[in-house]
Design a protein that fits this description.
alpha+beta; two-stranded antiparallel ribbon; 5 helices; 11% strand
């Protein structure tokens, strides 16, 4: 959890910053500290990442970027919209599946997505809501952000499961 540049007087003088860890003993600079992995947090001076508790998650470092963000992250954000508490109570389980299936269509053209829902879904209203959520969903890119304390682990969203060490809710 520490590094020792030339001239270091004490072993614990230079801890790796929060969000990073160092398992070895021969590190000479802060640049050798390693980003804490997803599903974990690393307090300052950590030598071993600590697993986020069950019921929480920590994605690999991410930030919203709708220009270069991944399609998969946009689909996940859309599915979270389908599970939004105000809409979730209006859907049956099958309706929720239809909404989430529309997210997975990954359709950039809203009118084609809506037409597909009307022609092929047993729950067209829920499916159309999924199309609309996909249009406004955010896409994310990895930026190497790391959790520096247990409180940085996010609470698992309703309807998803987060076991200890979860990176992405399922």
């Amino acid at each position: 959890g520490f590094f020792c540049p030339s001239g270091t007087q004490e072993f614990f003088q230079y801890p790796c910053p929060a969000g990073k860890y160092q398992p070895g003993y021969s590190s000479y600079s802060e640049s050798e500290c390693i980003d804490c992995p997803g599903g974990h947090f690393c307090e300052s001076g950590t030598s071993t990442p600590v697993t986020c508790d069950a019921g929480t998650y920590m994605p690999n470092g991410t930030v919203v970027n709708n220009v270069i963000g991944t399609s998969l992250s946009k689909i996940i954000d859309c599915k979270l919209g389908c599970r939004n508490i105000s809409d979730f109570h209006h859907f049956s389980t099958d309706g929720l599946v239809a909404c989430e299936d529309a997210c997975a269509m990954d359709e950039a053209n809203l009118s084609i997505c809506n037409a597909t829902c009307v022609s092929s879904s047993a729950f067209p209203d829920a499916c159309v809501i999924g199309c609309n959520y996909f249009q406004t969903a955010n896409a994310f890119v990895s930026v190497g952000r790391s959790a520096g304390r247990a409180g940085d682990c996010s609470v698992c969203p309703g309807g998803y499961e987060c076991v200890s060490g979860t990176v992405d809710p399922v």
